[in-house]
Write a structure and sequence with these properties.
Pfam families: TetR_C_24, TetR_N
Structural class: mainly alpha
Number of strands: 0
CATH class of the largest domain: Mainly Alpha
CATH topology of the largest domain: Tetracycline Repressor, domain 2
Keywords: DNA-binding
Oligomer: single chain
Radius of gyration: 20 Å
Protein name: TetR/AcrR family transcriptional regulator
Organism: Nocardia stercoris
GO molecular function: DNA-binding transcription factor activity; transcription cis-regulatory region binding
Length: about 200
Amino acid sequence: MTDTGDRSRADDTRARLLQAAVTAFAERGFHGSTTRDITSVAGLSSAAIYVHHRSKEELLYQISRTGHLESLAQVRAAVASADDPTGQLIAVMRDFAIHHAREHTVARVINYELAALGPQHREEIREIRQRIDGELRALLERGIATGDFDNPNSHMAAAALLSLGIDLARWYRDDGAWTPEQIGDYYVDLALRIVGARPDPQAGR
């Protein structure tokens, strides 16, 4: 087999282990899951995990880092998709809510198992979370400065809006009554109310 083939096989095995870890951590929690649980879900030998990852904690870190960086990129893309604060907030909240509903299993792991990370990894994830919060807070501050939003506390408003999306991972189920898109639209309405978005004077004309 070529080196390329070997790398491809190794990458596939790492991906299977990461997906299996998501399943195990979501069902049993980090501390309730063993490396044998993870390799069993992946259909691999119990020793495979240490060939591709240093530890169970390393798996959680990789899952958490990838998920948080995806959220950061998504927020930045949503902000860039509109020219005004209101349009940007609508895009951010809709995308953030839909993503957390569709990916609720991964989101539950990366948001509710943070305490299981080692200090260095936990600090790295905390910094990414701060960047996500900073993007939203900057958006709200622009809206307040332009008069689009009427809310005196951008820090608290940003925390409330992010919490709405993150908490979806706790309760959303694929067979539930609402689709991700319905939740996204509803959360947009909640977000506009929270920030005190001023009505468009052109609306209804």
